Hints:
Elements: H1 4-30, H2 37-52, H3 57-76, H4 83-94, H5 100-103
Amino acid sequence: MATDKQERLVLEKMGVRWAVLTAWVLDLGTRGAKAPTGIQQRLDQTYAKLSSGCFSSCEIGCTLNEVEATLTSMDASRGDSRVDYWTDLLGKAMGEGTPPKEVLNIPAVQVYYSDCHMGGCNCRN
């Protein structure tokens, strides 16, 4: 089981990951690809969860995994694909000791950790 400190660190990385995925959606839009409606809704929900402090990194990670998979598939099918660029940034977002500002010039979600013990994690597949 993760300690409170470990969980907070992972949640902070999830905040940076959220910022990268949000920027990826915006980038796709500037290249003429509209992300499915559900993607923006999932990102908005994830923002609220990270900000609330009552959701585990596992639950947040499940949602972000779905978003990442959709964006990867969507971008890879394009002639102007930038999947490598975005997956590199996602790797940096989750890397050890990488400050958020070095990953992307977009603010990460301000994470709160309340240790609400909201139950287990059930990823949908």
